[in-house]
Amino acid sequence: MARRAIPIAAAQPRSNAFDYLSTKKDELVGWARKFSLFPYPFVTACCAMEFMAVSSSPYDTDRFGAALPRFSPRQSDLLMVVGTVTHKQAPILLKVYEQMCEPKWVMAFGACATSGGFYQNYAAVAGIDRIIPVDIYVPGCPPRPETVIDAIMMLQDRIARDHHPIVTETF
Amino acid sequence: MLTAALEAMRERLRGGIGEVALVRGMLVLDVEPAVLLRTVGDLKAEHGFDLLLDITAIDWPGRTPRFDVVYHLYSTRHFLRIRLKVRVPESDPTVDSLATLFGAARFHERECHDMYGIVFRGNGDLRPILLYEGFDGHPLRKDYAKQDEQPLVRYRR
User: Fold this and answer.
1) Phi–psi pair at A128, nearest 5 degrees
2) pLDDT in tens, chain A (171 residues)
3) Out of A123, A126, A130, whose CB is closest to B156?
4) A150: helix, coil or strand?
5) What is the pLDDT of residue A15?
6) Contacting A residues, span 35-94, partner chain B, CB-CB under 8 Å
7) If you classify domain B2-103 with CATH, what class do you get?
8) Alpha helices in chain B (DSSP H)
9) Confidence band (pLDDT; 50, 70, 90) for B89?
10) Which helix (H) or strand (E) holds A43?
C-alpha cells in the first residue's frame, strides 16, 4: 500500500501560512520534552561548584532548556545527583526520586555519584545506580562543563528518539 | 613558659603524668585516666588553655591498652597548643567526659564514640552524630572491614 501524502499545504488556498502540519506523536512529545528539562539539583558535595559553573553564563545550560532548577521534586523531571551520596543520605535520595512525576530522568554527575569515586568505605554508596535507575553518567572529578553539556545533549537526543507512551485515551 | 607550666603541672599531679615530649613545638603529655579531668581543669583554670580544639582517638591493634584518646587544647592568651593522650583498654574503653569544663566536648565526644567506641563517662548524650541509628560497630577501628557497608535502603542489584 502506497504511503499517503502528508498534507502540509495551506488549508486556505490564498494564505501562504501553514495552518497545520502533521508529525508523529512520539516526535512531537519528545521534541517538547527534550527542550523543557526542569532539573532538580540534588547537590551534596564539591561537584556543586562545577554545577554552578555550568549553569551560569559562560556555559549557560539555559540554551538547552535545562537550566531552571525546580527545588521541588514534584515539578522537575531531571534529577541531577551532584556529588557523593552517603548511606545516611541514601533514603533521602530515594524519597526525592520517588516523589518525581513521570517522565523522569536521572543524571549521575561526577565520579562519586557514578561509582562512589575514590570512596570505598563504610560511609559512601558506591554509585547511585545501586539505589535508583540512572539514565546518563557524567565522568570526571569534577566533570568539565563541556562534559556536562555533552551529557545533556545526549540525554536530549535520547528523549527525542524515545517512545513516549500515550497519556490518555485520545492522545 | 612551657617548662614553667610543665614543672607546675608535675608538682600538682604527682605522678599522674607519664611521658612528656615536645613534638614540633607542642607539648605532649601522657595522662593517666584517673587524673584527666583534674589535669584539664588545671590547664584551663591556671594556664589559660581555654579552647578545646579536638577530641579523637587512635587505635593501636595489638597494643595493650589498645586505644589512645587524644585531646588538643589551645590557649588564646599565650597562643600555645597542648596535646594530652590517655590510654584506655579495649575491655573497658572509658574516660571521663570533659563536658563540665568545655561545652564543645559533647559533640567531639559523640563523634569519638561513633568512630572508635570510646565511652565518655558523664556525657549523657552519646547518640550517633555522624553515623546513623542502627549502625553496628565503629568504622575507624582497625578491625572494621573496609568494604563493610551497612546500607539503609535496599539495593536494586
Assistant:
1) -75, -15
2) 566 666 665 555 666 666 677 778 888 888 888 888 899 999 998 888 988 888 888 888 888 887 788 888 998 989 999 999 999 999 999 999 999 988 899 999 999 999 988 888 899 998 899 999 999 999 988 899 999 999 999 999 999 888 887 666 655
3) A130
4) helix
5) 61
6) 87-88, 90-91, 94
7) alpha beta
8) 2-13, 36-46, 105-116
9) very high
10) strand A39-43
The DSSP letter of residue A29 is H
What is chain B's Cα-based Rg?
17
ipTM value, please give it. 0.78
Look at residues A51, A50, A83 and name the one whose alpha carbon lies nearest to residue A69. A51
- The DSSP H or E segment spanning B18 is strand B17-23
User: What is the SS3 assignment for A152?
Assistant: helix
Domain ranges of chain B: 2-103
Say which residue the cell 565518655 belongs to: B120
Which grid cell is A30?
519528545
The chain B residue lying nearest A129, using CA atoms, is: B156
| Contact indicator for A121, A81 with CB cutoff of 8 Å | no
User: How many other CB atoms sit within 10 Å of the CB of residue B19?
Assistant: 9
CA distance linking residue B126 with residue B114, whole number of Å:
8
* Residues B149, A122: C-beta atoms closer than 8 Å: yes
Q: Measured in whole angstroms, how far is the alpha carbon of residue B133 from the centre of its chain?
A: 23
User: For the whole model, what pTM was predicted?
Assistant: 0.81
